[in-house]
Amino acid sequence: MLVFVAAQRLSAAERAPNIVFIMADDLGYAHLGCYGQTKIRTPNLDRMAAEGLRCTDVYAGCCVCAPSRSVLMTGLHGGHTPVRGNSGGIPLADDDVTVAEVLKPAGYATGLFGKWGLGEHGTPGVPYRQGFDEFFGYLHQIHAHFYYPEYLWLNDQRYPLPGNADGGRGQYTHDEIVAQALDFVRRHRDEPFFLYVPFAVPHYELLVPEESLAEYAGKFPETPYKGRRKKTGYPHDYAQQAMPRATTAAIITHMDRSVAKLFKQLDELGLDENTIVFFTSDNGATYGPSDPDFFNACGPFRGTKGGLYEGGIRTPMIVRWPGHVDAGSVSSEPWYFADVLPTLAELAGAKVPQDIDGVSMLPTLIGEKAAGHKQAPHKYLYWEDGPDRAVRVGGWKAVRQEQNDNRIELYDLTADVGESNDLAGEHPEIAARLGKLLKEAHRPPRPQIEPEPPAGKKKFR
């Protein structure tokens, strides 16, 4: 408490930096112009990259949603992190330590606005039992598939969206979430804050406000699809579902404008120079009606969401902090979501939990001289999804998949980012060394059980 009061008395320039971490949902590595996109306009994120650092070798925590978010929140890689199933409601436990719980003792107000996916209502995994002072958005990730539901959650209470009653389309949840996040910044401008904004876009469903869709309508050849609403009882929007490519592009551009709103507010409140902003995605682009092939959404990489090749786990990462992160800089240093917790802890002057897997990347972000120490190396980067495993050591990457008879595949990413040439036969000693790490890094998880919804009640509407 004394730390918090002292922090309040300091000016924005003197106190610890505000931290904003924005994460898109199923945004591919190359969905943004600054990563090579040519069909979708993302001028504000491109400007963020021009004014900050663009990372080329950053990875999500997993190739699917919930485990990736668990790695991000706990600093524990996929073989140790508590939530590894992807059903949507497997909860964190009371003794799990999140980024928010690390930052709060350092005097930070903590807010989460968007998609959580690490614990349903009534479980210990809900955000307000995991260190977040304020929460607004979706708890269960399946609920987050829909952008016009009848309610969201405001802390532990349902927050009705009357404009969406009976299938209406009056309140686009992405915009509601952004408005609440901006309000959090306004209310906490006089103290250091951690704002976590995990957007639910551009995942399912493919719907966006009409004014945004109009920018792309008729721009692309389309292959109509029936959409995901059919099985839920929600009404169709046939116009948008007949234009999945235009809708995908429009959602991403709409999201890009939301980032601009945040930067505008930081500037107007005089917080811009003392706020570090991260932008990333929770995994690679999803394969389906959003057509990642048409948009080259995963760039030069093999695979998409749901697989441990680069296209499923390598993600955009842009970091902006005026005066601290060099404008227009590019880093090829490999790192991943397990590193976020120790990085933010060092920024905040907070105590880092013992036995986490990540390392602070602050020297990479602001320079070793400014950070006061050299960049700590990684022994390895590790991922798993069910029985499948992957590990990266330097430029070497090993993949072991059940569908390929659990044999070790070996790729030299320095020469083959597309993972087209399996070198396990040519370098058996390297394949064996990385294969040993695949075994060492995995620890059996606790039971991955999702609570049942209350008797007689549907989980979502």
Biggest sheet strand order reads 7-6-5-4-8-1-9-10-2-11
Report how far apart the termini are.
40 Å
Strand fraction band?
A: 15-25%
- Give the helix/strand class: alpha/beta
Q: Summarize the biggest pleated sheet.
A: 10 strands, mixed
Radius of gyration equals: 21 Å
Overall shape: it is globular
Secondary-structure element string: HEHEEHHEEEEHEHHHEHHEEEHHHEEEEH
Share of helix, binned: 25-40%
Mean pLDDT rating: 93
User: Which stretches are poorly predicted, pLDDT < 50 over at least 5 residues?
Assistant: 1-10, 228-235
Per DSSP E runs of 2 or more residues, the count of β-strands stands at 16
Can I get a quick summary?
The chain is of the alpha/beta class and 461 residues long.
Give a structural overview.
With 461 residues, the protein is α/β, with parallel strands linked by helices. Helices cover 26% and strands 16% of the residues. It contains 14 helices and 16 strands. It has helices at residues 2-9, 43-50, 65-74, 99-103, 173-187, 210-213, 238-241, 244-268, 292-295, 310-313, 340-348, 362-366, 368-371, 428-440; strands at 18-24, 53-55, 58-59, 109-115, 134-138, 151-154, 157-160, 193-198, 275-281, 317-320, 329-331, 335-336, 381-385, 388-393, 396-400, 408-412. The chain has a 10-stranded mixed beta sheet, with helices on one face. Strands 13-14-15-16 form a 4-stranded antiparallel beta sheet, with helices on one face. A two-stranded parallel ribbon has the order 3-12. Helix 5 packs parallel to helix 8 (244-268). The two termini are 40 Å apart. 53% of the residues are buried. Residues 1-10 and 228-235 have low confidence and may be disordered.
